[in-house]
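Title: Prediction job returns without error message
Component: structure pipeline
Severity: low
Priority: P3
Assignee: unassigned

Description:
Job completed but the reporter wants confirmation the result is attached to the right record. Sequence as submitted:
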Amino acid sequence: MLVDSFAKNRPAIIAIAIVLLVFGIVPMFGSNYQISIATEILIFALLAMSIDVLAGFAGRTSLGHGAIFGASTYVVVYWTSVVGGSPIVAVALGILAATLVAAVFGMLASRVSGVYFLLLTLALGMIVWGVALRWTSVSGGENGLRGVGRPEWLNDPTVFFYICLGIVLTLSAVIWRLVQSPFGLTLRGIRDSESRMSSLGYGCATHMFIAFTTTGFFAGVAGALYALFNNFVSPSTVQLSQSVEGLLMAILGGIGTLFGAFIGAAAIILLENFVSQYTARWPMVLGFMFIATMIFAPEGVLGAIRRIFRVGKKS
């Protein structure tokens, strides 16, 4: 039984082992700045994976997950800086708030698909952005909110990095099991033919609601970690570009691969941090990279690697 379980989950085990190996050695050789970059990659990889579950396995492209991510960040920073509460409680409240926002989004978006789903999640995300911008007494408006920093035991960048690594890898395993479960197989069936699944008696809207809410939880965890990492939140944290960036990470890594999110997050965050030092036009470079991916590797980097290995085995 153990051998069968390993064989079934071998891709996930190998992927998690590689991520653990690559990221685990960063603190041994990297500076605090490099550790900070690696931490940011982990956080946004989790956001990208939450988007990939919907886009890759349910056939629903969400432009609202950046707002869900940002809602969690807002709650954590507000609770620690304005209320003066415990960071641990703040993280729990942030994740809860994000999950509730995702549930509301899910109730409204679960009965539509295609471009209508895309536009509805875009509109809902814009509402959250508008609230963050205009509710100045709570959100700080354009000035945002500055946190009080991480607890003393989390101040060390290396300690915080390893905590993020443990959380992200654990949730990666949970997400993998989710998409491999009967629930995940049902999502794929809905993606391939919603009408057929409905005729077989599956509640497609219910499954989509659960999927949206669950992925919102994962985005909320990423947002809470980002609040502790960045110690600042503003309307830009919940704006459309946050969702688009997370979606681009998933696409670059490979939609439907899950673990390609780590590759996509690393590519975009490294590009932002290093190319921006030499030119203010780094978004143009990102655009060219995205176009090249769509032309030469439409299945994403990890998808292309899988294809090469399959061709190699056949030959």
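Comment from assignee: result matches the submitted record. The beta strands are 145-146, 232-233.
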